[in-house]
Amino acid sequence: IQSLENSLDGQLKVIYGDFFRLDPLVTGTVKPPAMCSDKLFETMGVAAVPWRADVPVKIFGILPQKKERNTLWRLLFALYECSSIYRYGRAELNIFISEKEYQVLTAKPGEARAYQALSVLWQVGCEIQLLHTEPWSSFVTNLKNGGLAVPKSTWLPNDHLCLVRLTPQQNLFTGGLKPTNSATFIFMVKQCLAKPKSRLTDRLNSWSLDSGGKLLRELEIPKNAEARKLYPEDYRRLFEALQNSNMFTETWFHDEVLESIRNIN
Fold first, then answer.
1. Distance (Å, rounded) from C-alpha 101 to C-alpha 257?
2. Kind of pairing between the strands at 58-62 and 92-98
3. What 3-state DSSP class applies to 213?
4. CB 181 within 8 A of CB 81
5. 115-150 as b/e, with b when 16 or more CB fall inside 10 Å?
6. Are strands 58-62 and 126-135 parallel, antiparallel or unpaired?
7. What is the pLDDT of residues 136-176, one digit of tens each?
8. What's this model's pTM, rounded to 2 decimal places?
9. For residues 215 and 245, is the Cβ–Cβ distance under 8 A?
C-alpha cells in the first residue's frame, strides 16, 4: 500500500490505524493501531461542518465479526452524542456487516426475532441502504481445519455479508432529541424492548409516570400496545412528549443510563 501511495503522486494517503479502535476509553498515550479521531481527521484534512450540512466524509470497511454487535452499539452512542467521527458532521458509513445484523438493523414491528432496540435506534438515527450482498465464501474466513468461520445464527439468515450505507438523518436533532439527552432516549428504548411483549402502559407505570395512559392517548398510541408493536418514529414521539411533559425528569434514569454506557464501552 505504501508503494501504491508513492506511485500516485499525492492522490492517495496511507495512514496506519484501525478505524474500529478509534477513541479508545483509555488514559495516557494511545498506541497504534488504536488512534484518536481528531488526529485522524486532522491528518486527512477533514474539517467539522454543521450537522445539517452535506456528508463531510465517506468511510468504507468491514465490521470485525468478533465484536460486531458491540461495535454497532459504540457507533450508535457516538452518533447520538455527536462524538468521535460524528463531531465532524454526518459521517457516512459504507460497511460490510453480517446478514443477521442487517436483518436486525432493518427489522419492522412484528418481526419478533429481529425487532430490537438496535433496530429502533439505527432507523431513527440513519437512512439505511443495502448496496450489495456477497456470499461468505467470497471472503477469506477459513478456520484451521478448512471450514468457514461464519458466525452462527439460530433464528436469522446469515449466508452473506451485506454492504450497507448508514447516512445520519439531517433532522435527527430538530425536535426534542438532542446530543445532551440522547443517552436517555437510548436507555428508554432499551428498557421498553427488554421485554418486547410488555405493555407500554406498564412500562410507563414502572417509571412512576401516573399519566402515562393520557400521554399515549394524546400520541394516538393504543393503551394496550406492546413495546414490540411500536414503530421507531413512535418511540421518538414518545420520548419528545415525555421531554415536554411536566411529569418527566431524567433524575431517576441517571444511574441506569451511566451504567448502560459503561457496559457498552
1. 24
2. parallel
3. helix
4. no
5. bbbbbbbbbbbbeeeeeeeeebeeeeeeeeeeeeeb
6. unpaired
7. 888 766 666 666 667 677 778 888 999 999 999 999 998 88
8. 0.88
9. yes
